[in-house]
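PROTEIN DESIGN WORKSHEET
SECTION A - STRUCTURE
LENGTH: 177
TOKENS:
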């Protein structure tokens, strides 16, 4: 289940974070928009590998210490410790890869289109990915596919609206081209 959590978390993070960058950079030269979005995507992916590895390592170490106390033996250098380290590394890499792949969703339209059509596709594709991801997460968790899909889509729409409002607040004189 750790892999599924990493996939959902990373994809949501990558897709919506980069969508925010794309929306914030809208109106810039296309090469600058792509550069900002792709650089932000890679930085986000790499930082998520580090963050997930750090958090998972700390949690795994705690679980091993609890197991050691219960078993009255040290697990350093054992197969249990190696399995735990491997699972932690896999989860961290999965999280980072999912982040980068999710972050490509809002960028892809800008390779083929420009202006409002590209932005509309970036937002639409991102919301569709969030709907699908929410449905899949709902299926995995047995919490209802439709409910979970709509909940993730609603949070995603809030992210879009917030991202659209910020440039208007920071630079209201810049036209939406």
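SECTION B - SEQUENCE
RESIDUE ASSIGNMENT:
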């Amino acid at each position: 289940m750790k892999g599924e959590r990493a996939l959902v978390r990373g994809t949501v993070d990558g897709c919506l974070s980069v969508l925010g960058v794309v929306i914030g950079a809208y109106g810039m030269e296309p090469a600058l928009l792509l550069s900002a979005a792709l650089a932000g995507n890679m930085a986000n992916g790499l930082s998520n590998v580090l963050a997930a590895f750090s958090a998972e390592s700390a949690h795994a170490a705690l679980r091993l210490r609890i197991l050691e106390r219960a078993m009255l033996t040290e697990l350093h250098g054992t197969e249990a410790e190696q399995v735990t380290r491997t699972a932690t590394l896999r989860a961290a890499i999965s999280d980072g890869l999912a982040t980068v792949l999710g972050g490509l969703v809002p960028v892809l339209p800008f390779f083929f289109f420009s202006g409002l059509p590209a932005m509309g596709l970036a937002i639409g594709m991102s919301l569709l990915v969030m709907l699908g991801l929410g449905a899949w997460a709902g299926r995995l968790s047995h919490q209802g596919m439709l409910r979970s899909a709509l909940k993730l889509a609603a949070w995603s729409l809030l992210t879009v609206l917030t991202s659209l409002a910020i440039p208007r607040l920071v630079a209201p004189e810049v036209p939406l081209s």
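SECTION C - NOTES
The CA atoms of residues 45 and 96 lie 4 Å apart.
The chain has one domain: 2-170.
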